[in-house]
């Protein structure tokens, strides 16, 4: 006799879709704020779910662009939404938008994370920008002293406050002073979409 060891169902799933209040069924990213609200980036707007109802925001509400590609929440519970045309900061009442016109290195945004000093790190198609609450500082490929590649698909801040960047050609790590690069022998492995840290501290 053959025994099939398939997936085991645990708990109950609830399915939410546009008919329940989402602006779109195409979900790009999720984040949770300190109040337990779930923020959802879709290809047609930003939504907040409080466990019962959805509230959504789109371009006519101040969002930079309707396609939200990435989300992060800072220590003040401000929502940072990346789009193909810049970044929006939402304080719960109004949006503040950032583009190349006011400091962002490149408008096409792929990933956002927040470090322990509440700096906002934005990975784009043309490098990385850091926002300290007042000013933007940008980083690009510069030999051994910067990013390994400017096409940054993901940004991750680890428990030691190191900033990791996954690119089209390997990984860069920045500790605030020095850069370190990791390139794999297999060229296809160097295209890095996401970086996480497990509960043992391993990346």
Characteristic terms for this protein:
globular, four-stranded antiparallel beta sheet, 203 residues, mainly beta, 16 strands, single chain
What does this 3D model show about the protein?
The protein is mainly beta. 0% of the residues lie in helices and 38% in strands. The protein contains no helices and 16 strands. The chain has a 4-stranded antiparallel beta sheet with strand order 1-2-3-4, with no helix packed on it. A 4-stranded antiparallel beta sheet has the order 5-6-7-8, with no helix packed on it. Strand 9 and strand 10 form a beta hairpin. The N and C termini lie far apart (41 Å). The model has no long low-confidence stretch (mean pLDDT 91).
Question: TL;DR?
Answer:
The chain is an all-beta fold and 203 residues long. The protein has strands spanning 27-32, 38-42, 45-49, 54-57, 70-73, 79-83, 86-90, 95-98, 109-114, 120-124, 127-131, 136-139, 152-157, 163-167, 170-174, 179-182. The protein is globular, with a radius of gyration of 18 Å.
Record the SSE blueprint.
Elements: E1 27-32, E2 38-42, E3 45-49, E4 54-57, E5 70-73, E6 79-83, E7 86-90, E8 95-98, E9 109-114, E10 120-124, E11 127-131, E12 136-139, E13 152-157, E14 163-167, E15 170-174, E16 179-182
């Amino acid at each position: 006799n053959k025994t099939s060891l398939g997936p085991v169902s645990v708990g109950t799933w609830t399915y939410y879709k546009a008919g329940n209040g989402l602006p779109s069924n195409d979900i790009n990213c999720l984040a949770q704020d300190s109040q337990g609200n779930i923020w959802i980036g879709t290809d047609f707007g930003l939504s907040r779910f409080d466990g019962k109802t959805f509230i959504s925001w789109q371009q006519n509400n101040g969002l930079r662009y309707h396609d939200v590609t990435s989300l992060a929440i800072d220590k003040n519970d401000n929502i940072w939404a990346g789009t193909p045309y810049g970044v929006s900061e939402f304080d719960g009442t109004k949006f503040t938008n950032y583009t190349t016109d006011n400091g962002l290195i490149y408008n096409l945004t792929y990933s956002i994370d927040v470090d322990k000093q509440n700096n906002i790190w934005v990975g784009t198609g043309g490098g990385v920008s850091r926002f300290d609450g007042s000013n933007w500082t940008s980083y690009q490929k510069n030999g051994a002293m910067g990013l390994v590649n400017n096409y940054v698909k993901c940004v991750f801040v680890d428990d030691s406050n190191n900033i990791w960047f996954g690119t089209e050609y390997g990984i860069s790590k920045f500790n605030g002073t020095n850069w370190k690069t990791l390139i794999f022998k297999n060229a296809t492995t160097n295209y890095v979409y996401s970086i996480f840290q497990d509960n043992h501290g391993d990346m």
